[in-house]
Structure prediction request, 83 residues.
Amino acid sequence: MSLQTQFLVQAFNAAKGDQLKPDRPIVCQSAEGARRTAQRLALSKAGVVAFSITSDDETGDYDEKPAIFYREGQVPDEFSEMP
Prediction:
């Protein structure tokens, strides 16, 4: 089994009504790098979330729920409900 952990930052922009439009996800090298990137983006975005996801390269299996370690501003419900 070959587990890989990816650290990602997803930013959101305000759209029409109460909608949020996602930016392209940013891949980071570490959790701390993702946290710093998210904190910088939070200054100019409607919302931002930093999370990790673990996958198995051999089987293609991955976590169904990402591990969120930073969240700020407005984010979609699926990110709001996660710990």
The beta strands are 3-14, 20-22, 26-28, 47-56, 67-73. The CA atoms of residues 20 and 77 lie 11 Å apart. The chain has a mean pLDDT of 90. The first strand starts at residue 3 and ends at 14.
